[in-house]
Amino acid sequence: GGTGLDDPEILEGRTGKHVDTPFGKPSDASILRKIKNVDCVLLTRHGREHTIMPSKVNYQLSIWALKEEACTHVIVTTACGSLREEIQPGDIVITDRFIDRTSLRSQTFYDGREVLIETAKKLGLRFHSKGMIITTEEPRFNSQAESFILCIWGVDVINIITVPEVVLATEADICYATTAMATDYSCWKEHREILKILKENANKAKSLLLTTIPQIGSMGWSEMLCNLKNMAQFSFLLPRH
Question: Could you say which of 3.40.250.10, 3.50.50.60, 3.90.1530.10, 3.40.50.1580 is the CATH number of the domain covering 8-219?
């Protein structure tokens, strides 16, 4: 759960659970229970009161805690700024590529995107089935000059949390997908209804997740999870003897 989507009410018969990991305690209790008979865990990235800045989130322990609960998929939500005219405020972007422009976050430690795409179609949501996202440090937003450079690079949206979550999830053999919800045009084009769009996006994302998760739970993922495990195993450089 990210900005605007950390509501435990989406889980039926929920219970809270505090866990310890080698990296400390998560930002908040894990909320366990079901969404339409699928076992789920909701972990609020920034804490229940949204008090933890993105660069201060302990991403390692968050992913570790989800792995300890035997999670096989992580579906995240993130507010983002659009760097493309056609990605309008209120649109959802199901990203498939990322650029890392962070410098303060530990990163050591795909994909069920098609299900999200098909569900978004059925719900009639305005969405984009692919996109490149860039993650930067906060609290400073991009300058207009920086936003124009990112447009030239071909970046679609900008946020402050995708990295290192996606890297850590891959290392933990967990399928990871991002639903990036555009709130504005970054600062390269004027747009003034950010809070209104943020609330509307949260409602869209809830609908998307509540419809998608039962479908994910009914599908077979053993081959993909095996491939993820093999990819993680052979992604580390081994020393020569």
Answer: 3.40.50.1580
